[in-house]
Amino acid sequence: MSQTVDRALSILPLLARGPADLGQVADALGVHKSTALRLLRTLHEHGLVYRQQDGRHRLGARLFALAAEAVENLDVREIAHPHLLALNEECGHTVHLAVHEENEVLYIDKVESRYPVRMYSRVGKPVAITVAAVAKLLLADLPEGERRALAERLDYPLYTARSTPHAAAFLKELAAVREQGWATDLGGHEESINCVGAPIRGADGRVVAAMSVSAPNVVVTAEELLALLPLVRRTADAISGEYSGTTASSP
């Protein structure tokens, strides 16, 4: 039975490369045509494979519907939370998770630091979009035209002397973030708070969320926080792998 399931599932990536006839499927699986036909018929009955008029087979609409439904019902917060807890346990600092929704970047999860000094951020609250590390990560992934249009319509409040002053500077920073795959906020929103973040990607490689570690400079310096970047990126990669279904479940 397990061999039959394995063979049937092996047909799907084959057809993902394009339609194939019965002989091509049989050759790829290393089985007789009668066996390949039986597998194709079963997949067809479930809507996962469709037989074209020319006799070739392609992926069926049901497969795409299932994929879309699965993605729609994925909860990145639920998947990410155990990883955020583990990161917080290891470094002790505040950990955030954020998403881009309806022209805002919102915190959807937060794990508080272990020390008495707390940040004012809270779940459900929009971030300072022109300076926050998570916002830079999410907006940097937008297509160039969308990035430029968004940057031109944003306001650029000068929270501190290190805040992003205008659209040109913001676009330059987003380009750097897109290239390097991580982002920082070193006193751009609050003079005393530094932050380093990394993107969480879906199966298609697009950024679906962003996570960060933040700490006041009375606890750690900016350089000490930046030293945590490899750990932050490994955590983001682990969440990405689990979210996209390419790695095992959370710790």
Termini separation: 31 Å
Q: Report the C-alpha radius of gyration, rounded.
A: 23 Å
Give the ordered list of helices and strands.
HHHEEHHEEHHHEEEHH
Helix content: 40-55%
Task: Show unreliable segments.
Answer: none
Q: Say what the CATH topology of the largest domain is.
A: Beta-Lactamase
Number of strands: 7
Strand order, sheet with most strands: 4-3-7-6-5
- Beta-strand proportion: 15-25%
Coarse shape: elongated
Q: Provide mean pLDDT, rounded.
A: 89
What's the total helix number?
Answer: 10
- Could you say how many structural domains there are in total? 2
Which structural class do the helices and strands define? Answer: alpha+beta
Which CATH class of the largest domain applies here? Alpha Beta
* Biggest pleated sheet: 5 strands, antiparallel
User: In the CATH hierarchy, what is the architecture of the largest domain at level 2?
Assistant: 2-Layer Sandwich
